[in-house]
Amino acid sequence: MLAAGATVLHVDVMDGHFVPNITIGPPVVAALRKHVQAPLDVHLMIENADNYIPAFVDAGASWISVHQEACVHLDRVVEHIRSRGALAGVVLNPATPVATLTDILDVVDYVLIMSVNPGFGGQKFIRRTLGKIRHLAELRAQRNLSFRIEVDGGIALDTITDVVQAGAEILVAGNAVFGRGDSGHNVQQLLQAARSAALQKA
Description:
Elements: E1 9-14, H1 26-35, E2 40-45, H2 53-59, E3 63-67, H3 74-83, E4 87-92, E5 110-114, H4 129-143, E6 148-152, H5 160-166, E7 170-172, H6 175-178, H7 183-201
Parallel strand pairs: 1-2, 2-3, 3-4, 4-5, 5-6, 6-7
Helix pairs in contact: 1-2, 5-7
């Protein structure tokens, strides 16, 4: 993926409680870190995320994002991530409004908008999330903030233009990369489409 032009590796961590699936933990992140120099973007779709931040940072996570819906004390969790030396992100599920992040946007490094319901790959892109991406980009401009906008879910050649033109800068693709054909070629096609969309937006 990196040889094809990807710049960040996104790692989905699921606990079977916050989302209906179980995936990987710190040992896999540590194994990845031994073989790649690229940032590891660890997306914690778990309850009690604060308890696991040290383990993921020690394993080599460069970025850690937590769900607004799963964190009772979101400000504290974000500060914990940053105090450990990782970039801190906050994630919003499709039904959670951007307004829930009003008081945290000035201390996060990125916001991840889920454009599918978290838990399983291969889901259809939820088009109403485009409005959330635009809203977030508008808030960033109005408040002169510098957080980046990431989007995860249903990113493919038929959705990438709309997502980039809505304001997304970091794109997470799974099924569109690994679902069929040569994964490296798929990455190159997605990147080309994203760059074209960014040029059209400019």
